[in-house]
Amino acid sequence: MASRIEGDRNEPVNEQAVANIYGAMRTELNQVYSKITELEMEVSEHSLVIGAIQPLDPSRRCYRMIGGVLVERTIKEVLPAVQRNKEGLEEVIARLNEALEKKKREIAEFEAKYKIRIKKSDGEVKDDSGRKEGSAQGVLVGPAGASE
């Protein structure tokens, strides 16, 4: 009896429940995408800082924000810490990418199991690509036509 209750909990009871679960899965996927993007921006900021302070004299003073407090340090002290932070962020991004792929597989399996098809997204993607190609061709052709 306990296994039957667990099975009922795992299986959606109607189409609305399937749609709700699918929506929640898509929301989680979008959250992982946005977190990866946010962390990639931080990595690029760290790279900019490393690139800016690396050629400077290691004994030169610099300031670093630690927990909302601006602290005076030397480049010699700050550079390794910034590089470690960047490496840590890159590791987190790698783990999030793995989680993203796992979530994509889960969604694909869910779509296959419940035969979910999204027609609007496919149509919009095709329409957008067609419009982009058309507008790009128009831009390229415009000056050539004007010179004739």
Overall tally of structural domains: 1
CATH architecture: Orthogonal Bundle
Strand order of the largest sheet: 1-2
Q: List the uncertain runs.
A: 1-8, 125-148
Strand composition percent: 5-15%
Question: How would you sum up this structure, described in words?
Answer:
With 148 residues, the chain is mainly α. It has one domain (12-140): Helix Hairpins (Orthogonal Bundle), CATH 1.10.287. Helices cover 79% and strands 8% of the residues. The chain has a two-stranded antiparallel ribbon with strand order 1-2. Strand 1 (61-66) and strand 2 (69-74) form a beta hairpin. The relative contact order is 0.09. The model is unreliable at 1-8 and 125-148 (pLDDT under 50). Residues 122-134 have a biased composition (Basic and acidic residues).
Structure summarized in a few sentences:
The protein is mainly α and 148 residues long. The chain has helices at 2-10, 15-53, 75-114, 119-147, and strands spanning 61-66, 69-74. Strands 1-2 form a two-stranded antiparallel sheet.
Write the layout of secondary structure elements.
Elements: H1 2-10, H2 15-53, E1 61-66, E2 69-74, H3 75-114, H4 119-147
Antiparallel strand pairs: 1-2
